[in-house]
């Protein structure tokens, strides 16, 4: 157990603030900027993120920089004790660049080149774009590297998308040459002998396109394209990071992630970040549905924290409505505080918003903000924010604390890419992410802390040693080393849980031969002969321990080999065949759940496993549904966050006393760590 | 109260007829054309529209005209006493023009140029297209300007769509220079500082494109593009109108509109028309749903009439099935007469059809027509048409009469463009048009005549003086002068009704600062702090006058400032807060309805207002549901049209007697105007 | 009654086997190929299809052939007594060809050219593609023409799609010049006078495009484009067939069809095939829905057989899940045998699969196969296949037997093209194919054998003489000669059944004048004045013989002229008007059903007709629902196949005894033909 350093060394507090766009208010800056400072302080804000999307303001014409306005803003912030999260402006280009250098515009899967517009719409391979990026980032670092307000570098914004231009095609081929020793190896790995797809020359390889328009049937190609796209972002991050690193080596750098955004493997990208940050926009409804939304948001926080196993930044969240949702619902009373403390509970050392002051025009003009168009501190939302500021100010002890977990749940981008692309079972609707979260939620409802890791971490030497339970729902793809590490984990005494659709393909999305679950067949002691797909209204059952639990969607027909059968199917032509098994192996146990189940089964099953393994619960109590408890600790003091995601009150009766939580209510308890 | 001149000076009757395409029947013209005249007369038809889409027949090769067939047709019509609505043929080009001059083909939002095909598929900026238009229109006007059959010029057909070619881009930039004094002013109005969108040069501005493909996030740009598109049609109309005006100054010119077609601001286009005409295709079901369909059709008639505040032409309607609907239902008995008299009741001086004789091929070959493929007068549809002919012939007194209204409902294209584009609330699903019609219907069910006006008319000096009640549902955008005119209207004693989502943005779709409803805050006496969006199944309530009326979709959280609270919310965290208010101001009253309600609330609420203000009802009676009554008058005689949109009989008990209406039945009562 | 020769002269057995892709397993060929032979023999397999999609393996670089691996495979097959269905590889091109000759890539309706990728993605007009095809096919025929394994040529694979490149445009215009004597004739046939579409020059004609993008409103053009596309495939088939025919005149040639795939008129394509083959993938659910699925699969088998009136090949079917379905369900026990015997029952002399060994990569890697990734004979699926092998081996007597039918149901591609394109009634949702199958099913449930023919066969001299009953649901289009042949059939004593939507258009999709059903008006003795379209939930009724049968979707308002009224409408404004009529004409009867009905009406109505006409039933018994019986005969012996498509047992009590069928059970009875 360690206490990590604060993200900004000079600010030993939880950071509170958000995106701030003073460049939109230059016409009234004398009045507005000063008022902004007053309002920020009133709201307990100690950080503001500036410069995101400011390229046109900073470089209005090619090569002519205008830093005056930003000088003024940063000075004002420093005067008011507000730390700057200073952004590089590469999230959106000025129009002059697209005009002068059309190569910076992205090319789509259908090979049409975009027009200027939107944002995040540039080719990462473009030499011009990279050169312009270096120039502006260098200028920023030179000018503000020593500014007292500077706290964190915020590189670009929400990296995403992909480009299929000729420059990117060429880089893709280079990437492939690094991955495969020869074209023959690539052809074999991608199984191109089907449908006459064998490549006769590296130059024949093109990125995936759309159905009918071009190639999309080579799953190995599709998968490798996603890896390449991830590497493009890693490479571009390092590129734009270079001048910052050189000039301000002590200022931490980040880019804001987006949960399980499918376009980039964040486990890979996180390797090059100094600190991880992300943008969280749960869809709160104000109803009993928020328990599920809460579990999902917690999962995403835990995933983000697990990327680097240390405190992260909640870079963006909405203090009110999220404007881009089809139904832009207001936050109910208490919800803003709840979502803010939830982030901290799961490892965030910041609570930040998009945005501080609501803009007057453009597509985000109705997104929730600390200061509304109305302009005063007299709104409900402003008061909610100020309340959060007050609560965070009282939690300095939490800064840098750790979040120990006895359980790890596996979520893997490469696996997801392959499953999203699968032709078979339920095609694109296999529900991978939702299934992982359902398993996660069974621990969350017990107040059991959980890491979220991927195959690359599974295979990391020693990594699994810290866990008692490893849960890998739908572990469809086994990347190199994963099966071996899991087997060793079991043999050493770990408890492993796998499900249907495990061990089907290798890292190239090529099926294993010799019977599924492939390399995990000895570990799990089962052979999965076939998998049945059910229509949406169809139901089967798993009979376990006297109860018939509902099964649906996917039911695997397995043979227990060395495994013991715990539960069986209740219906259809495979009634009575094994549906739940355990394989005792070495000092550990490997469970296999053969079908998709409901939350009831998962709750009962994992409660049993938590009891059996002694995995730690935040509170020694059965939590009411929709309530979780999470711990942060420095090894000496525990900060227990109790969070109620129900629109009704909830009571926790634990050894330390009775805890009454209001609807959407929260409590933080300090206690000595035992 | 005035009696307007007949549309065709020499024909003091209601016009009855429709689109006629003799050019499709040239192969059998000796038999068919003569038979057409016999059948037309048999059906009581006194007008036929010819030449729509005849360009290929009139100019089969570039520069070679063939007028012989049209000479013959017009002579036949004159001989048979049938007035010609003569069309310019610009609704569709001959193929030779697209081949020789590809510039005439439209360019889409994705910047691809169309192929030849369809119709209405030409660039209005194209010099070639304009030159060809001038030539053919001049030739038509020269040849037929003195023809005895000529009654009305019908320019092109159902203007619509847009073009994004380079020529149009250039014209768009010119349009913008006329709208903004400087690029800086444009940048400020469009709030381009967000997402680095600031324009450094006029030439960088491009028309909106599609999501991801190009620009679509600058709402001011999107809005101005729609204004430009409207001006393109105005300009093109004037262009193709010029030779007609020069050669036949006394022949009225029109182009046929399409109700609330969103692509053109008809209030603007109507300014340049001599007479307004439109194409009405209600979807009748033959069930109790037709009450709602009837209200909607009436709204569209009233809107069309209000464009110029004088009688209009029903240029197209179907005497039977509308072929392009997914379910092309037959008209039930009586429905054809009902929809025809409905148009006249609301101010039409014509009942015209698409089409007279059903074509044998192409995509409209199954659209309802007076004469079917079968070819005789022995069809049900033909008899329905002949009945209408007979009824119209007895209503000469109605020609040119006025339609006085004490109530105006606001429907505004600019506002709609902005609301359709809004990111927030319920995004594209805010239901603006449907909401306006729901408010309209509450008056329609009472037999209260209603104008439909937009912000430009609100701001027109003196315009509001004629109304007792002004209703502006979701007045999201306040264009210059509107708020001032409304406030003056109230101060002078008017009754104004506004709702949630009022006064959010200015004419550039840029939010007002200082609290919504912006400039109307003093008029309405409320501050709208926040707006809650509800999921489709969610419900709240407005408690008013002892009843809990359902509220849904959008609930605004308002503060009554100078206003008095009449009703309050019934549920959720804002239960008890104001939901219905009135602000007594000057001699008038300004009501505010904070949430979307059902028809029950609107019926009760507006019945109260009609009683309070003494707004005129067509009949001094409570009308049964689904029945309306509308008046046309020359100031001396009232023509009261009673219309039953129910599949069941209805009875009206009014001071003049008892009126029994058959299912879908109609009655016209003459009475002295008091 | 004849016995046809076996498809492969030297193999007087039912063929059993499937697609085999040894080229995907060259890396492990020594082990895998030998094991394949062992497993094939174990499963009772006597044929394998090789070389489909092998172009890249056979010609890895332009002009360099590699036949060694195929030599080896064919030798192995010959050694093991396995007949080869040897494919030409034109279903997919190697990548080098697309690179070197982009003209081979298809152009879409939007006129964009595809990238390399997918399969079936080539221009049939391309001279380069045709030249390459000739070269490889010649090389194959030269090398393997005398190979003892060679049994059947399999040309390409599942022909489909279309190309809009300039070469194809030019060929299309040539096709049109062959169809129309002059441009004037084409303009009149296509009714181009509407919307100014008259063509001034052949060169102005372009293929149909998409809505708004280009032309799609000229229905005659759309229709002729489909005819052209069919002729493109006929022509290409003959082109690639030429070297095979020249070098191996005795080896039968086929290409695998796809049931009612809408893109090609299979009645036309079948004319140039030596033997018809098709790929059948019914969606079995394991529930009572399978009765309907079974009827549909039978219909498709009967259609395929009727194309040439002789035994066909079931070229592909799945022994397990069909991977590309949204829900890839496993076959329930017995279902694999059921679907295999079903094919034979309806005239197939083969049972073949896609595929023998499941591939490891690419988009078909989870499609059902005889040998799974697991690799042994110990799977359920392998055992199912082996069981089929055993059963087929016992049915040598069935080879070449005939399938006599007293009933013909009409299914017509040209008609379907027009109905799918119709604007009116229910637009694209008129349900033509489903309706035809509903009528077909009424006979299938009675065990009455049925041919499926189109208008071209109706008009074939003497063709109708073999039938007692001719059923033509929705005979919207009457191609030349069809009405005359039908009338003669009736006059000679036949029983003809027509429905609503009959006789609307001629072969150019141009309506008949003078009253529908056009040329069949005297035959049917009715005039169809109007057709009412119903909303999905609306219902009417046909009152016939004391029962009110449900009517829905489309209700035609007819006048009985010479016909006698048997049933009338039960509701709406046309209650009491004729809904079912019969016209006694010459020695026969022509029935008219005016509305779409449910299966109940069709069952009762056609039972009456079968009884009246004495049409032959396979068993003299009332079959339980979901059970059919079908006969194959050599004139001396009948092979009666009883097939139970229910998940429950069924009993047939017939004069020969009681037959008990297990769930999804089957039985084959031999009996002397009487
Ligand atoms: Zn690129
Ligand atoms: Zn243009
Ligand atoms: Zn082509």
How does this model look, in words?
The structure is a homotrimer of 674-residue chains. In chain A, 31% of the residues lie in helices and 20% in strands. Chain A is an alpha/beta fold and 674 residues long. Chain A has four domains: 15-164 and 228-397, Glycosidases (TIM Barrel), CATH 3.20.20; 166-219, no CATH class; 407-613, Class I glutamine amidotransferase (GATase) domain (Rossmann fold); 627-672, Sandwich (Immunoglobulin-like). In chain A, helix 5 (127-144) runs parallel beside helix 8 (219-247). In chain A, 58% of the residues are buried. The complex binds zinc ion (3 copies). One zinc ion binds next to helix 6 of chain B.
Helices, strands, pairings?
The structure is a homotrimer of 674-residue chains.
Chain A (H helix, E strand, L loop, with lengths): L14 E5 L9 H14 L4 E4 L4 H4 L9 H12 L3 E5 L7 H6 L26 H18 L5 E5 L11 H14 L3 H7 L29 H29 L5 E2 L1 E2 L8 H5 L6 E3 L10 H19 L4 E4 L18 H11 L4 E4 L26 H14 L13 E4 L2 H8 L11 H13 L5 E4 L1 H4 L10 E4 L9 H10 L3 E5 L21 H4 L1 E8 L6 E5 L2 E14 L3 E6 L8 E8 L2 E6 L1 E3 L1 H15 L13 E7 L3 E8 L5 E5 L2 E5 L4 E7 L2
């Amino acid at each position: 157990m360690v206490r990590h350093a604060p993200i900004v060394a000079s600010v030993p507090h939880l950071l509170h603030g958000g995106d701030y766009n003073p460049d939109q208010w230059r016409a009234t800056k004398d009045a507005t900027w000063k008022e902004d400072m007053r309002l920020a302080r009133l709201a307990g804000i100690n950080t503001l993120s500036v410069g995101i999307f400011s390229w046109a303001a900073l470089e209005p014409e090619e090569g002519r920089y205008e830093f005056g306005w930003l000088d003024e803003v940063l000075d004002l912030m420093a005067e008011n004790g507000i730390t700057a999260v200073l952004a590089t402006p590469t999230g959106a280009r000025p129009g002059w660049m697209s005009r002068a250098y059309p190569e910076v515009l992205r090319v789509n899967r259908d090979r049409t080149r975009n027009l200027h517009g939107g944002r995040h719409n540039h080719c990462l391979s473009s030499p011009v774009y990279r050169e312009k990026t270096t120039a502006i980032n260098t200028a920023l670092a030179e000018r503000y590297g020593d500014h007292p307000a500077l706290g964190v570098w915020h590189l670009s914004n929400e990296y995403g998308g992909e480009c299929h231009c000729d420059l990117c095609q060429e880089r893709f081929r280079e990437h492939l040459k690094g991955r495969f020793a020869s074209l023959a190896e690539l052809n074999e790995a991608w199984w191109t002998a089907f449908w006459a797809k064998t490549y006769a020359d590296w130059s024949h390889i093109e990125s995936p396109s759309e159905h009918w328009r071009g190639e999309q049937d080579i799953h190995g190609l599709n998968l490798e394209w996603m890896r390449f796209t991830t590497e493009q972002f890693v490479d571009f991050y390092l590129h734009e990071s270079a001048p910052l690193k050189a000039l301000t080596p002590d200022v931490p750098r980040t880019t804001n992630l987006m949960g399980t955004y499918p376009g980039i493997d964040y486990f890979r990208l996180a390797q090059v970040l100094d600190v991880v940050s992300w943008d969280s926009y749960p869809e709160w409804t104000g109803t009993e549905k928020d328990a599920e939304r809460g579990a999902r948001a917690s999962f995403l926080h835990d995933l983000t924290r697990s990327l680097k196993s240390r405190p992260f930044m909640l870079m963006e969240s909405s203090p009110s409505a999220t404007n881009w949702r089809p139904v832009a619902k207001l936050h109910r009373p208490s919800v803003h505080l709840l979502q803010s403390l939830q982030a901290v509970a799961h490892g965030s050392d910041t609570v930040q918003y998009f945005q501080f002051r609501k803009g007057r025009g453009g597509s985000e003009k109705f997104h929730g903000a600390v200061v509304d168009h109305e302009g005063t501190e007299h709104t409900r939302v402003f008061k909610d924010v100020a309340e959060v500021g007050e609560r965070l100010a009282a939690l300095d002890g939490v800064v840098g604390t750790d979040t120990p977990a006895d359980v790890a749940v596996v979520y893997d981008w490469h696996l997801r890419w392959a499953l999203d692309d699968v032709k078979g079972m339920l095609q694109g609707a296999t529900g991978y992410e939702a299934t992982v979260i359902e398993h996660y939620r069974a621990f969350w409802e017990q107040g059991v802390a959980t890491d979220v890791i991927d195959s690359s971490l599974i295979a990391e030497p020693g990594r699994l040693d810290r866990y008692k339970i490893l849960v890998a729902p739908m572990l469809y793809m086994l990347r190199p080393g994963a099966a071996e590490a899991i087997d060793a984990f079991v043999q050493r005494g770990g408890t492993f849980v796998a499900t249907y659709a495990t061990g089907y393909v290798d890292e190239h999305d090529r099926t294993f031969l010799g019977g599924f679950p492939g390399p995990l067949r000895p570990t799990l002691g089962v052979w999965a002969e076939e998998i049945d797909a059910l229509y949406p209204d169809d139901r089967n059952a798993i009979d376990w321990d006297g109860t018939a639990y509902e099964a649906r969607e996917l039911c695997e027909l397995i043979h227990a080999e060395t495994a013991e059968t715990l539960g069986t199917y209740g219906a259809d032509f495979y009634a009575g065949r094994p549906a739940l098994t355990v394989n005792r192996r070495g000092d550990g146990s490997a469970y296999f759940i053969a079908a998709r189940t409901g939350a009831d089964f998962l709750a009962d099953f994992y409660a049993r496993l938590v009891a059996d393994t002694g995995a730690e619960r935040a509170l020694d109590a059965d939590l009411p549904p929709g309530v979780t408890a999470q711990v942060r600790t420095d090894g000496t003091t525990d900060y227990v966050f109790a969070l109620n995601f129900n629109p009704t009150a909830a009571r926790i009766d634990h050894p330390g006393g009775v805890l009454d939580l209001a609807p959407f209510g929260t409590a933080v308890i300090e206690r000595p760590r035992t």
